[in-house]
Write a structure and sequence with these properties.
78% helix, 446 residues, Growth Hormone, Chain: A, 2 domains
């Protein structure tokens, strides 16, 4: 790779910039609408009983993730059979229609319609997911692959942060639902316009070679066999799925951790979530620099160590607040940052995110680099299904340890750190390429 090129040189290329803008705006819209809906529910705009609130928030999360189980494999087959840029334009046009319906649902405060739109946004994301990572190696050279994935990862997490903050803040203000509805429509239109600039990405096989099966079980079984053909790809899928379980557990628990454990004002939630997500964005961008543009498996063990180390430190840094008996919700962000462990907790979450970025970007790059072009999207669809399954498993694990066993959130974070070392140690044992490349990288990192 030409090291004289800057970190963001791909933003000057038509083969990357329109795609980056399209995926960024799509992720932003998903999170704007989803978080606005959750804020409306939690603020009792639709329900008042706590049990109903818990039911609806969990139902909303389930409705968004269910399409990944149902449609990912079909989406992967379509992405391998047709021009990916063409499919993206059709998906983004459908988003405009969905956001028009969503705006109407927000205006009428119709919860059932909002949940229906959320499910359809999940369907759209399920169809976009395999295309998203399959189109990158079609337009990007091998020496640019890590830079592209790092910037896409950075953009995804920044859009999650912006969508979380803006969606929740805007919808509860004066005329909030209408303003939020107008915003998501504008974002959808901008996403469709940018998608029209994406260069063609024709299929690698003739359209008549294989018939598309709309049986998700049959397609999943077949696509899983494709993924199994390369052992490295299969363990990368397991590793990426573990990352999403790990990250989802932290993102899910940070709100309660902020208010209940730290005693923070609800505004502290945004600060801690922002620290974690900004860390992931920084780590994603650092991958290209640390690996000199190569697809570098050696960064994955480094990311694993950092994820566990700073999660353990988060457990210890939280003990100070637990001993202070601070009334939940009473601690202002400014007061938190002046306390002995405040900045340490903020740094822990930042570095957990940073090492998460170092972990996940090489994983996606390895999947892309080690799959056949004609079946890449179908293999990536299996990755999406495993990601969704692991994320749901993380939620179940959190409920079991926190609600059934009565563990504290810091104790749960420490347990995740241990599980992370155990799970990834098994992966490194079964697929030695990670540790062998890590040793080489340590000897010659630059």
């Amino acid at each position: 790779m030409n090291n004289n090129r800057g970190q963001f040189f791909l933003f000057s290329k038509r083969r990357f910039l329109p795609f980056f803008v399209t995926q960024f705006l799509g992720a932003l819209n998903d999170n704007l609408f989803k978080n606005a809906l959750l804020v409306l529910v939690v603020s009792s705009a639709f329900v008042t009983a706590e049990g109903n609130i818990n039911f609806i928030t969990n139902l909303a999360a389930g409705l968004f993730i269910l399409p990944f189980f149902l449609f990912s494999t079909i989406a992967g087959h379509l992405a391998d059979r047709f021009d990916k840029a063409y499919l993206i334009r059709r998906i983004k046009f459908a988003e405009i229609i969905l956001m028009l319906i969503g705006c109407l649902a927000l205006w009428q405060a119709n919860l059932n319609w909002m949940l229906a739109v959320l499910f359809l946004l999940g369907v759209q994301s399920a169809f976009f997911g395999p295309i998203k990572y399959a189109i990158i190696p079609q337009h990007i050279g091998n020496d640019e692959l890590l830079a592209a994935n790092g910037q896409v990862g950075m953009g995804t997490f920044v859009s999650i942060l912006l969508g979380t903050l803006i969606g929740g803040w805007l919808v509860i203000g004066p005329q909030g639902p209408m303003k939020l509805g107008a915003l998501v429509i504008l974002v959808a239109i901008a996403g469709w316009i940018s998608s029209c600039k994406i260069p063609r990405a024709p299929p690698e096989i003739a359209a008549s070679d294989e018939q598309i099966s709309f049986n998700p079980f049959r397609e999943t079984a077949y696509n899983f066999q494709l993924a199994k053909q390369n052992k490295t790809v299969l363990f990368c899928i397991f590793s990426s799925s573990w990352f999403w379980l790990y990250g989802a557990c932290f993102l899910t628990q940070v709100p309660n951790f902020s208010v209940v454990i730290l005693g923070g004002d609800p505004r502290l939630i945004s600060i801690l979530l922002g620290s974690f997500i900004i860390g992931v964005a920084i780590g994603s961008l650092c991958c290209n620099w640390l690996s000199r543009g190569r697809v570098e498996p050696g960064l994955v063990p480094l990311g694993t160590l950092g994820l566990s180390l700073f999660a353990v430190d988060l457990f210890f840094s939280s003990t100070y607040f637990a001993s202070q008996n601070i009334v939940a919700g009473s601690l202002l962000p400014s007061e938190f940052l002046l306390m002995p462990s405040g900045l340490r907790i903020l740094a822990d979450l930042l570095f957990i995110g940073l090492f998460g970025g170092l972990f996940i970007v090489p994983i996606y790059s390895m999947i892309q680099a080690n799959t056949q072009a004609e079946s890449r999207a179908r293999v990536l669809s299996i990755n999406n299904i495993f990601n969704a399954f692991f994320m749901v498993s993380g939620n179940v694990m959190g409920m079991f340890f926190l609600s059934v066993l009565g563990w504290s959130i810091p104790e749960f974070f420490a347990l995740l750190a241990l599980f992370n070392l155990l799970f990834m140690s098994l992966v490194f044992y079964l697929e030695p390429v990670f540790l062998s490349r890590f040793k080489d990288w340590v000897k010659s990192p630059t």
